[in-house]
Write a structure and sequence with these properties.
- Helices cover 25% and strands 19% of the residues.
- With 214 residues, the protein is α/β, with parallel strands linked by helices.
- The chain has two domains: 73 residues; 131 residues, Ureohydrolase domain (Arginase, Chain A).
- It has a four-stranded parallel sheet with strand order 8-7-5-9, sandwiched between helices. Strands 2-1-4 form a three-stranded parallel sheet, with no helix packed on it.
């Protein structure tokens, strides 16, 4: 959603995660969205909450890098992706695929938002998920054809990721649970990626969009 030197950072404060992170929040010009009193948002997102979230996000024209709070709110990425007007690739760093159909009907959740994105967003060309242990073969053919899953233990070094992205536009989303607990502790089971490998892969993904702009 933009680089630091071009746009502000946006903090979505669902759970108070950033209230005491003064070093982070004071480091950049930013938008602050206070959503601790918005009901129906933790783990699952009610239709009313999703409408409110999309309306507010749409009103922020320069969102830049967007912090979502804990993994309980990763589904907000779905709303961010809906704003993209050209074909794009989602590069997701996550220990989980977030490709479940949903356990409570069609309700959007932190475990189903990628499935919703593939189903509902026409401009989403491909999803590359870095970090899960599950194989792409575990999913139905219509899903399998549009995803690429790379387990953390098979993540190669170098700029290889740029070659896997078929579109000029890229959206990068990072769930901290992809990292080894040495680098971050989360409220979910975690992967084993190092911070260095995660940063290198993210740089490789973002270089695709920079190359296409030249």
């Amino acid at each position: 959603m933009g680089l630091l030197h071009k746009k502000k950072v946006t903090f979505l404060n669902f759970d108070g995660a950033y209230d005491f992170q003064d070093k982070l929040t004071n480091a950049f010009p930013h938008h602050w969205v206070e959503w601790r009193n918005l009901r129906g948002t933790s783990l699952y997102c009610s239709p009313a909450a999703l409408t409110a979230i999309k309306r507010k996000l749409k009103s922020i024209s320069e969102k830049g890098i967007t912090f979502l709070g804990s993994g309980n709110y990763h589904y907000v990425t779905f709303a961010l992706l809906q704003e993209l007007k050209k074909p794009f690739t989602l590069v997701l760093f996550d220990h989980h695929t977030d490709l479940d159909k949903g356990r409570i009907g069609s309700l959007l959740s932190c475990g189903s938002w990628v499935h919703h994105a593939l189903t509902d967003i026409n401009n989403l060309s491909k999803v590359i998920i870095i970090g899960p242990g599950k194989s792409a073969d575990a999913f139905p053919a219509p899903i399998r054809r549009r995803i690429q899953i790379i387990p953390d233990y098979r993540l190669p070094a170098g700029g290889w990721l740029c070659d896997q992205i078929p579109t000029a536009k890229v959206h990068i989303s990072i769930d901290k649970d992809v990292l080894d607990p040495v680098f971050a502790k989360t409220n979910w089971d975690q992967g084993r990626l190092s911070l260095e490998k995660t940063q290198a892969a993210a740089r490789g993904a973002s270089s695709r969009e920079r190359d296409r702009r030249r």
